[in-house]
Amino acid sequence: MKTGHQQLDGQGNLKHFLTIEGLSRELLVEILDRAEGFLGVTQQAVKKVPLCRGKVVANLFFETSTRTRTTFELAAKRLSADVLNLNISTSATAKGETLLDTLRNLESMQVDMFVVRHASSGAAHFIAAHAAPHVSVINAGDGRYSHPTQGMLDMFTIRRHKGDFSNLRVAIVGDILHSRVARSQILALNTLGAAEVRVIGPRTLIPAFAEEALGVRVFHDLREGIRNVDVVIMLRLQRERMTNALLPSEHEYFQLYGLTEERLGVAHPEAIVMHPGPINRGVEIESQVADGPRSVILEQVTNGIAIRMAVMSMCIGTQNIAMQADGKTDGEANG
């Protein structure tokens, strides 16, 4: 599967955002820095900037989502783009139209960007490979493979609390095997130079050869895994992606891997707690921790809008550079 090169134009600018794999540290830092500037937009009386005025963004969600779809919609609107939300369950795709036919029809409506969420790994790459040259594609989560904007909003949240990544020890706890979020977080943390990335969970939920393949340390004991870490990221059990009975029960899982105040006590005293959501209270985390002073879970949601604004504006900026090189104005391109 193509990664970095498919996402960049000939000058190294971000055209698509499909995965963190293959992207440079400098580009990830540029996304984080740009998101920092967009945080202030939410404090303004008019929560909009004109960077994507006249552009059309289509949210193409083949999986149900509330948080991700809503934050992408808000991000696009705050950039002054027009937003098209497709209800895939009642769309022509559900009636037998191919994905490529749907893509071509939307392109004929002068859509400039597709935000794609799909149950199949590689779906966003497929769409990007077949999209018209002027169209950008952002991956909003595909199968078990990648959820790059979630990974980046988590990096943004960590950086705002901890600053430099080079001395950080980060623990990711739970269903690593089925989690596209975990994969994106691990890639981002290693690219940004985190001192140590740990993954913690039962053997049935950790990928084989994870240490070599992912560049992490593997723990099966929660206390040992989160000892002295600076960041604890809890993951939801991805039961919809489990094909076998990989866990005896949710109750037993919580007894071994659920994050409680008492267990959190072995982490660094200033450690923060994160969760990409949705939270299953009493399964992977207790309410006292989720709502406690060390939790930054709601900040993650707020930061998600800024990160998605950053990525969308960078992709649209690359489109504008290409149009200027071709001697076209925005009006001519969308007319």
Question: What would your notes on this structure say?
Answer:
The chain has 335 residues and is an alpha/beta fold. The protein is 40% helix and 13% strand. A five-stranded parallel beta sheet has the order 7-6-5-8-9. The radius of gyration is 20 Å and the shape is globular.
How are the elements arranged and paired?
Elements: H1 4-7, H2 25-39, E1 56-61, H3 67-78, E2 82-87, H4 99-107, E3 113-118, H5 123-130, E4 136-142, H6 148-162, E5 169-173, H7 180-191, E6 196-200, H8 210-214, E7 217-219, H9 222-226, E8 231-234, H10 250-257, H11 261-264, E9 272-274, H12 287-290, H13 297-325, H14 330-334
Parallel strand pairs: 1-2, 1-3, 3-4, 5-6, 5-8, 6-7, 8-9
β content, as a range?
Answer: 5-15%
- The shape is globular
What is the residue-averaged pLDDT? 90
How many H/I helical runs?
14
Structural class: alpha/beta
Q: What is the distance, rounded to the nearest whole angstrom, between the alpha carbons of the first and last residues?
A: 34 Å
Sheet having the most strands? 5 strands, parallel
* Rg from Cα: 20 Å
What proportion of the residues is helical, as a percent range? 40-55%
Number of E-type strands: 9
Weakly predicted, low-confidence segments: none
Q: Trace the largest sheet across and list its strands.
A: 7-6-5-8-9
Give me the strand/helix succession.
Answer: HHEHEHEHEHEHEHEHEHHEHHH
